[in-house]
Write a structure and sequence with these properties.
Blueprint lengths: L13 H4 L13 H11 L8 E9 L1 H11 L7 E6 L1 H10 L1 H7 L2 E5 L29 E2 L1 H4 L4 H10 L10 E2 L3 H10 L12 E2 L10 E2 L4 H4 L15 E2 L5 E2 L5
Length: about 250
């Protein structure tokens, strides 16, 4: 995230961009810096196994352009196209979504890579009150809602042309009630078919805790190690989740 004074909506002036605080150390980004970062983030060339468009989300006009270029062809690899709920619905009404999906693509509303049905969310300090993305969470707690900076969040949502990104979800008193509520919406279920995933922090997804129902999908993956000793999710006296992944 960066500010462009006089261009991005939250930075009409340098003073507004820094909320009256003096800027920190300055530095110049050169073409060499960009080349080095691009090299670090890029993998060696090879066969394409998966493709994704839509970060930020594609507009309706962009979806129409994709549909026009497909022209009866079919994708050879898994291909996802991300857009907003609103534009997906409009694309379906116009027949655009059907053209894209008949070509073997998946039209995904919202950032599905980070939103699962029955999801809960807790606060992270690094967001600085920006709650964009909270609209895709099903339930949260007052601990997060009280930290939301509505003004900052609104600026980001408007700049992204994606206001539904910041809708407040169902808010329950504590994490135990939030998780219990989501489990109640999944009834009936058994331990074998329930798929529950605990991620301590989205900044670190090397280790996850999953329910028994997830194991069949993981058993044949060479990049996943399943520990033999089961871990349990517990709660403290204030009904806050005690992560078994805590340091």
């Amino acid at each position: 995230m960066y500010h462009v004074v006089g261009l991005t909506p939250e930075a009409p002036t340098l003073e507004a961009a820094f909320h009256g605080d003096p800027p920190g150390d300055g530095f110049v980004v050169t073409a060499k810096d960009l080349d080095e970062q691009r090299e670090m983030l890029s993998a060696d060339a090879g066969p394409i196994e998966f493709a994704l468009l839509g970060c930020p989300h594609l507009s309706l006009d962009q979806l129409r352009a994709i549909a026009a270029r497909i022209d009866g062809r079919h994708f050879k690899v898994e291909f996802w196209v991300q857009t907003s709920f609103r534009d997906k619905e409009l694309a379906e009404r116009m027949g655009v979504a059907q053209v894209i999906e008949q070509a073997g693509s998946r039209l995904v509303p919202a950032p599905a890579s980070t939103r699962w049905p029955g999801s809960t969310c807790s606060a992270r300090r690094a967001s600085e009150g920006n709650a964009c993305g909270l609209g895709f969470v099903d339930v949260t707690t007052p601990q997060l809602v009280e930290k939301v900076d509505l003004e900052v969040t609104a600026v980001n949502a408007i700049a992204a042309c994606f206001p539904e990104d910041m809708r407040l979800p169902l808010t329950l008193p504590n994490e135990r009630d939030a998780i219990r509520a989501m489990l109640d919406t999944l009834r009936p279920f058994t331990a074998e078919d329930l798929r529950l995933v605990h991620i301590r922090s989205t900044l670190d997804v090397e280790s996850l805790v999953v329910s028994e129902g997830c194991l069949p999908a993981l058993s044949n993956r060479a990049d996943v190690v399943v520990e033999e000793e089961p871990r349990r999710l517990g709660f403290d006296q204030d009904a806050r989740l005690v992560s078994p992944l805590s340091a």
